[in-house]
Amino acid sequence: MAQDDNPDDQSDSEKNTEWAEFRTDLAEDRTIQATERTFAGWLRTAFAAIGVGIAFHVVFGEFQPPWLAQAIASLFIVLGMTVAFTAQRRAAQSFSRLSTHEIDRPRTPNIRWMSWSIIVGGLALIAGIWILNDGSIGPNG
Prior knowledge:
- The chain is an all-alpha fold.
- The chain contains 3 helices and no strands.
- Helices cover 74% and strands 0% of the residues.
């Protein structure tokens, strides 16, 4: 009888549909993982820009006029902070549009926390570059 059929006896089209939906779910999970990797890549880029700024200030610290080396170093640090901020916004937008199926999605507050830590650290570095001249606070001398 038709009512006594085993539910495992699905037609080929039903099985194909089920497998297609499963593969689509896995593709969405892979997209979430790719977004995570992209976010990590952008944070590495932010750290690199901040590192270039610090290196520029160290290498050209005796540059005349001194404010020029500080300004160029600050520019790179601000660039790194901007990259971190943009990365967290884009990642959060992507994660809000996607749903997870077989994996755990990173939490948006954690992503924001990482990016804002970089921004606060960058602000502290800029303050240090402009306030600390020869190791003492205040004007040289």
